[in-house]
């Protein structure tokens, strides 16, 4: 029996070791989501405390995005050098330290530097965590387990809004930002007891550690055979694909992987251009522009709406390995387009009645449901499984780099654009972008359900189609699975 059907990839359910790894990555995702969501709550009180202008308030959001971009740029090489778990340890330590320095910042420069470094940690985590989970997950459950990380992000954002609401009477933005240090310390300790992935150990020639990791992931694994398959896969990838960054990029900009590069770049762009971070960062201010007032409306309603994202993401996690990636992605984008249309309609009417506010909330709910069902969940799946072997970390890094690069523009200029052209045209623009994104995904997104991680090369080498000689089940049995 081949490795793709044995070890963690073989079973229909992950064992305890796999669940612990997924749990650790999910905990990192909660902290990441909290740090992003806390920005929106803190933004209600920070400008008054430090006397910030609108541009400076936007920069408070943007500086975190700059750090995220830097982190995404270096993440691929970093986790290949120090390991998937090593990258996660670095991230959690940084989460704890810089959450505290943000909370204790005596002035704006110290706060900005702390936010920048916190953003770097977030950028690294968005590459390290999904790759870590993907390489320790069964083929039959891999998509759902990777989505758990996005579910954790949703929970983190929801907790951030809830914490901001509870702390709103004190107007304590320092507490809103600083409490993230507490779970970071706990997750760091837990990660110290975890292992790295068998694949990374083999990459570094640490075969004894790889054997121990394989046994923990599945005690029934034929470790000698599994190690031989991993080494053979790595040797094949080393011969077919270069290791240095410049050579890796050269492979990606030529056929057959140019199509994959276009897909991953587009995926990263779509993630932000369809509006998610504009809403996460500025939803309280958007609600104010719609006539909402009071902390219950500005903070508790967004927290409640975030629950919808968690529910949709949970559904996606449970069904992605049965329904498939493409149907969920396309359905989610269609729902998002409708949602943007409803929000634009409330602006076009110019009416601030209760019925219009209810329609606006319905639009936000539908947007979060569509996002959680498709893009929000599946970007992590696609980023971690759309390229084989040594190209995988680079591919994930490229997707997140584009994602965070566009995020800088959204963070800095969304409020200015909203004021200049009005909400009706901003959200009408989101409708158009989302529909274009639907067509893009329909044309280029692969269906990787049931396919081995390294078997994805067959898709790109066959011009963006799976070879007729193999189906999903056949691919799982014939390809050496990446662990």
Kindly provide the radius of gyration, computed on alpha-carbon positions and rounded to a whole number of angstroms. Answer: 22 Å
Helix content: over 70%
Order of helices and strands: HHHHHHHHHHHHHHHHHHHHHHH
Q: Please name the fourth-level CATH homologous superfamily.
A: MFS general substrate transporter like domains
How does the overall form come out from the CA principal axes? Answer: globular
Q: In whole angstroms, how far apart are the ends?
A: 16 Å
Strand content: under 5%
The domain count comes to 1
Question: Helix count, per DSSP?
Answer: 23
Task: Name the CATH architecture.
Answer: Up-down Bundle
Q: Quick one: biggest sheet?
A: none
Number of strands: 0
- Supply the CATH class: Mainly Alpha
Task: Say what oligomer this is.
Answer: single chain
- CATH names the topology as Growth Hormone, Chain: A
The chain-level structural class is: mainly alpha
Which ranges are low-confidence, i.e. pLDDT below 50, for 5 or more consecutive residues?
A: 1-12, 471-483
Mean pLDDT: 81
